[in-house]
């Protein structure tokens, strides 16, 4: 895809240096992701994955003296809440936060309109919003969870509802942080198939993970991180090789691809 003035990249980062305490977590990182592309970002612990997520979502900020460029859809002057509706994040921390309440599945999904974790009395839900919430619950295979308290759901059920919360605003991209963490095999497989449907509807999927089976076949590009820098970036089949992953992780890694899914083990 060629980006131009009418189709700027989903994300355009240049010269991004971010400190976490005294540690340089992102070291002059530059990265561009076109709209519509499905991407996986992979790296060992300490490689900068979490900081990259936090920087994308404007929780962390780069060092200004390096003249960083941080654009989403060609703009750098976003109101944070507007930006987070276009690029929605689903993390395990968010699931845990939602599960602290007894809000129903419907309430959690519709709370996405208000950047909260459940509906409150001051929140007004229009018929159009309610209709979209029902549409999302069906898309996520979570209609049966509409009235169930989220703190009584399994981890897999809660994750589906929280992804629905992210989707209710019809974001252009969905940022998924370790999506299968805490799920059993059946729940993980079901979630992957649901995410494939979401991607087919036009939402860009950005996976941040160390677990290769999370990466659905529709992901065409893989970015490897190491020490806050991009270690490798390219087509999935060219990046996810035994040689490259062995160098990245500093140990012998074997890789298998079956049915469009990759897996690896030491």
How do the strands line up in the largest sheet?
Answer: 5-6-7-3-8-9
Query: Largest sheet, if any?
Result: 6 strands, mixed
Count of individual beta strands: 11
How far apart are the first and last residues' alpha carbons, in Å?
Answer: 35 Å
Shape: globular
Number of helices: 9
CATH architecture field of the domain at 35-58 and 78-237: 3-Layer(aba) Sandwich
Instruction: Give the uncertain stretches in residue-range form.
Output: none
CATH uppermost class of the domain at 35-58 and 78-237: Alpha Beta
CATH topology of the domain at 35-58 and 78-237: Rossmann fold
Rg from alpha-carbon coordinates: 19 Å
CATH superfamily caption of the domain at 35-58 and 78-237 = P-loop containing nucleotide triphosphate hydrolases
Kindly name the structural category: alpha/beta
The helix content is: 25-40%
Strand fraction equals: 25-35%
What is the average of the pLDDT values? 94
Describe the structure in your own words:
With 266 residues, this protein is α/β, with parallel strands linked by helices. It has 9 helices and 11 strands. Helix 3 crosses helix 6 (155-167) and helix 5 crosses helix 6 (155-167). The mean pLDDT is 94. The strands form 3 sheets. It has a 6-stranded mixed beta sheet, sandwiched between helices. A 3-stranded antiparallel beta sheet has the order 2-1-4, covered by helices on one side. It has a domain at 35-58 and 78-237: 3-Layer(aba) Sandwich (Rossmann fold).
